[in-house]
Design the sequence.
């Protein structure tokens, strides 16, 4: 632990640094250049940035020890998340740190638009007293359209209730039940744009949200409607916004973020009914303090072997769901170890089916990643973890599919894995009952503990074959601890699972395969 190092590449609140000093050597180089960063990052397990420092693919590839990149803020636009994922490096941020701060700023911009505060301020400072020139409108009774009902959008909603506004939202990922609890009516985007007096944006900038509001959308808005954007530049097409305001298609806008920052030579600067702030939505002492503390705790969690909460490149579950699946994370790890040791040649396909109560869980990604991690680590030199497991599998051409079914064969929950390799196919099913167990191998019913070394043999179900297998193990002084067999019909093919006290050398497996009526044998160490 004493050798762990954390690089602070941008200015953060001292409380975050104090938090990190408990577990690592903290090096603050808040003026580090891109060239220096590439040269010096190789000794660090973690890096903390805000918006100045760019963590590029070149930086990540120059950092063999790097385990976590922390953005002390909301977005991760300055981090190459794809490159980090490929290298198994976690990317975290502090989304909750700025929720209240940004929501309050959005309200400030709404009020500035509605009451023409910035124009009135400028007028008074110029020595004028133009009371009649700044007739405003009340927010009370107006309809607020919230685009994005995440942490910030929800905070905006709760505060605008106090202004007496009617609330509607567009968010494909929120349920009607969750919206009802907040007191927001869910609408499609077109319906929201037509009905809202004020539209406030609280979504990330993605390929789906880039220019979400452009000419076509602005044409169906109310003539006196306002747009407020404290999210990301690029969500609004600024050229179309300029034309819509200039032509009187909408009433005005308030922007804290821009497609190009700073917005030099932006024609929107010419318009009186546009309020500008220089990307300060998250700029409060409280938010910066909280962001620093949050990412510091995330880094501590990783350096101490735990799991952080705000991982961008890995699924995160709520605590209740995680507790529900936690035993099955152990199970899928064992099933992954089983299939990789029974595979003959490279694995081409993995089909994972979640049955019973597990089928009701919406997201199985963590369990699937855990299984892939246990499948891939034994066959690769580069480390595979929960972050890059899916990417590594894809890069190796392994087709991974997930399925659900309700029938768990009498068990509360069951996981089935079907593996296709170059030389064979294996199917294994497992359950968790006090401990992980394998209950079926290639459609043969078994009851196998998932620990220790075991021999799995396929043979012809006739007298003497089990004895010959046991005798061969005895010749090599390999002691049998437990044994069970599974068959589908008398005299046909059967499977035998033998738990042994010693490892089974490859040459012994070879001798077992040469026994008459023994079709296959494989040793598995779980």
Sequence:
């Amino acid at each position: 632990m004493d050798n762990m190092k954390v690089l602070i590449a941008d200015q953060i609140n001292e409380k975050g640094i104090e938090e990190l000093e408990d577990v690592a050597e903290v090096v603050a180089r808040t003026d580090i250049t891109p060239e220096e960063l590439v040269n010096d990052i190789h000794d660090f397990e973690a890096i903390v940035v805000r918006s100045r420092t760019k963590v590029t693919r070149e930086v990540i590839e120059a950092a063999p020890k790097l385990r976590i990149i922390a953005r002390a803020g909301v977005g991760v636009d300055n981090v190459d998340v794809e490159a980090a994922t490929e290298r198994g490096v976690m990317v975290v941020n502090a989304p909750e740190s700025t929720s209240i701060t940004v929501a309050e700023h959005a309200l400030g911009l709404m009020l500035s638009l509605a009451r023409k505060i910035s124009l009135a301020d400028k007028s008074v400072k110029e020595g004028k007293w133009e009371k009649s020139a700044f007739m405003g409108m009340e927010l009370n009774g107006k309809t607020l359209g919230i685009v994005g009902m995440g942490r910030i959008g929800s905070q905006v909603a709760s505060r605008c209730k106090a202004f007496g506004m009617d609330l509607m939202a567009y968010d494909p990922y929120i349920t009607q039940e969750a919206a009802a609890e907040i007191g927001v009516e869910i609408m499609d985007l077109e319906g929201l744009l037509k009905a809202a007096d004020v539209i406030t944006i609280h979504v990330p900038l993605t390929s789906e949200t880039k220019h979400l509001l452009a000419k076509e959308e602005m044409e169906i808005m109310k003539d006196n409607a306002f747009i407020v954007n404290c999210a990301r530049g690029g969500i609004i097409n600024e050229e179309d916004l300029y034309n819509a305001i200039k032509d009187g298609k909408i009433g005005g806008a308030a922007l804290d973020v821009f497609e190009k920052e700073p917005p030099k030579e932006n024609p929107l600067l010419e318009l009186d009914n546009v309020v500008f702030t220089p990307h300060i939505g998250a700029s409060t002492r409280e938010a910066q303090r909280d962001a620093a503390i949050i990412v510091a705790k995330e880094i501590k969690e990783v350096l101490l072997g735990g799991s952080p909460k705000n991982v961008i490149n890995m699924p995160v579950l709520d605590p209740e769901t995680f507790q529900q699946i936690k035993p099955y994370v152990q199970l899928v790890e064992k099933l992954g170890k089983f299939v990789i040791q029974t595979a003959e040649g490279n694995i081409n396909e993995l089909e994972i089916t979640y049955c019973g109560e597990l089928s009701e869980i919406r997201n199985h990604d963590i369990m699937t990643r855990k299984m892939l991690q246990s499948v891939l680590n034994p066959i690769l030199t580069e480390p595979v973890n929960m972050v890059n497991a899916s990417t590594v599998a894809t890069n190796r051409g392994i087709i991974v599919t997930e399925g659900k079914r309700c029938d768990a064969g009498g068990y509360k929950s069951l996981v089935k894995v079907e593996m296709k390799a170059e030389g064979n196919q294996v199917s294994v099913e497992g359950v968790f009952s006090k401990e992980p167990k394998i209950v079926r191998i290639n459609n043969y019913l078994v009851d196998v503990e998932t620990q220790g070394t075991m021999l799995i043999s396929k043979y012809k179900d006739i007298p003497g074959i089990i004895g010959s297998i046991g005798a061969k193990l005895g010749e090599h002084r390999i002691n049998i601890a437990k044994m069970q067999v599974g068959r589908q019909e008398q005299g046909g093919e059967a499977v035998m699972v033998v738990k042994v006290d010693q490892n089974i050398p490859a040459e012994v497996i070879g001798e077992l395969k040469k026994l008459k009526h023994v079709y296959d044998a494989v040793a598995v160490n779980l």
Remarks:
- DSSP finds 17 helices and 22 strands in the chain.
- The longest strand covers residues 347-356.
- The mean pLDDT is 93.
